[in-house]
Design goal:
The structure is a single chain. The chain has ten helices and four strands; from the N terminus they run αββαααααββαααα. It is mainly alpha-helical and about 240 residues long. It has one domain. Strands 1-3 form a two-stranded antiparallel sheet. The radius of gyration is 20 Å and the shape is elongated.
Length: about 240
């Protein structure tokens, strides 16, 4: 989830797409009834989608035409197949093996080191601030503030993260590993010492994705499609 944080972006589509919104004000947007995301929702979807596209390029082997689940498994499987990777230890418990394997993976995720030291909540806040810095807001008498929209988006991300077993957004990714493993072992079917580390981590990934019961989300779709569909549904439901 937090692999798409704090990346540089030139979102040229925002400037051209914003032209139909009329007069702008720094903090305010209009409220209106609608059955689609609306101009502000459309702009936010474009910005976030651009962030995601840029993030995908950080991961060797990421294929934008493949499903989210396939890509996650591919980028995780590849580093586990090289020399020097912790092998499955038959003398350790399943939990200890998974903790060791996932902890290793987190050391090679392509994130700036300063982001690794921050909590998930801090990284989410940075992501939202970066995205909203690119979004103009129009001024109309009936208004909702920029900060209120940011809070709505923050709430959505927290809702998504809440589906991940054992996750505490007030801790770093690394600090969440053991609690995540403990919870995933309670619900995942098929994780055991007869399988390889790769096989067991893939089961954990599939189980985690299955826990996300969010309108518009489907792990069989691409990451881009999931972002667009989830945000489209989300902003269509909001009264602005």
């Amino acid at each position: 989830m937090n692999s798409i944080v704090l990346i540089s972006l030139l979102c040229l589509s925002v400037t051209s797409s914003a032209s139909h919104l009329g007069h702008f004000h720094e903090n305010q947007i209009s409220l209106f009834n609608k059955d689609a995301p609306g101009p502000i929702g459309d702009l936010i979807i474009k910005v976030v989608t651009s962030l995601v596209v840029q993030s995908e390029q950080l991961f060797p082997g990421w294929n934008e035409t493949k499903s989210l689940e396939e890509n996650l498994e591919n980028i995780i499987d590849a580093p586990l197949r090289v020399d020097g990777v912790p092998a499955w230890d038959p003398d350790a418990t399943v939990e200890e093996n998974l903790v060791a394997g996932i902890s290793f993976l987190l050391t090679i995720i392509p994130l700036p080191e300063n982001d690794r030291s921050k909590t998930i909540a801090e990284n989410v806040a940075n992501l939202i601030n970066d995205a909203f810095a690119l979004i103009p807001f129009p001024a109309i008498p009936i208004v909702i503030t920029r900060q209120q929209v940011k809070q709505k988006v923050t709430d959505l991300i927290k809702q998504i993260l809440a589906y991940i077993p054992g996750l505490d957004v007030n801790k770093t990714l690394q600090a969440n590993v053991r609690s995540y493993v403990k919870e995933i072992l309670k619900i995942a079917k098929g994780i055991d010492s007869s399988k390889t580390l790769i096989e067991n981590i893939n089961i954990a990934i599939e189980t985690t994705l299955d826990q996300i019961k969010l309108s518009g989300f489907n792990p069989d779709k691409t990451l881009d499609a999931n972002v667009i569909d989830v945000l489209t549904d989300f902003f269509t439901r909001l009264p602005f």
